[in-house]
Specification:
This protein is an alpha+beta fold. Helix content is 43%, strand content 13%. It is built from five helices and three strands. The chain has helices at residues 23-26, 30-36, 43-47, 57-72, 89-99, and strands at residues 8-12, 18-22, 49-51. A hairpin with a 5-residue loop joins strand 1 (8-12) and strand 2. Helix 4 (57-72) crosses helix 5 (89-99). The longest helix is centred in the middle third of the chain and has 16 residues, at 57-72. The chain starts with 7 loop residues before the first strand and ends with a helix.
Length: 101
């Protein structure tokens, strides 16, 4: 019988930065959820490490921040806006589209 998956996963940016994130928060992103699905047959499902060749560390950090922010406020009303630096907007939008967030 295989061991249950870890409560945490590692998201790795294209410049080598690793972000350890709670699995349930990370799985809010559709692409990450599919990568970590044990029935997918993907290596990421076994290792718990997801490498993103097209997302740099600065953007990945903001993605992780958003995943936690979204998890924290998922049932709340009148949620305050998350601070996003204007210079990251385009790259963050592309990452969000890729990750299906």
């Amino acid at each position: 019988m295989p061991a249950p998956p870890s409560e945490y996963v590692t998201l790795i940016s294209n410049d080598g930065f690793g972000f350890i994130v709670r699995r349930d928060s990370a799985c809010m992103a559709g692409a990450i959820k599919r990568m970590l699905d044990p029935t997918s047959g993907f290596a990421e499902a076994v290792t718990g490490r997801c490498l993103f060749e097209n997302i740099n560390g600065v953007v990945m950090e903001k993605v992780c921040e958003y995943l936690y922010y979204n998890d924290k406020h998922k049932d709340a009303k009148d949620v305050p806006d998350m601070e996003i630096p204007p210079e990251l907007c385009l790259e963050l939008l592309m990452a969000a589209d890729y990750l299906n967030v």
